[in-house]
Amino acid sequence: MEVSGFDVFVDDAWVHKQLYDQKLRAIMTQFSITEEGQVLTGHVVLGKKLTSSRFGDVKKRVKFAYTNLHKEYFNLFNLNPFDVGGEEADAQCLMERHAAKHKFMEAKASAWYHVTYHPEWYKREKENRRHNLEDDLSQPNLLSFGWLGVEHLVLIKTSKSKRTKEL
Known about the structure:
mainly alpha; RDRP; RDRP_C_head; RDRP C-terminal head domain-containing protein
């Protein structure tokens, strides 16, 4: 999933991933949830016995908390310098700007995916957690951060698949 220019965004992506993961783990801790997928999907399984109305309330609160976190980082991901000004530009300029924005967003998505899944960064995440003793080290690394730019990841994969078929 690496594309040209992704390395420019890696350091920034790492910082954002650390903050995102910290906030996601806080949600998980607050609601005694051990699996990331439960927070993302809203299909929460709690160890405690709760009345159905109380359980429904907890599910709503988890969904609300994660929706806000997702929205915050989705908006952060989508910040780019190509959305500012230029309404008076001619068609050629607009096409060039669109192409540059597309490359920019693909490189950014690639970097966010890279710091989540690349073995070097996955290991760094484990070491960072061990060093900070922030949470249960038996829990796996969180993986949802890498998918905040999913629409661009799909374009990368589609483009690479087309090039492979042409060869």
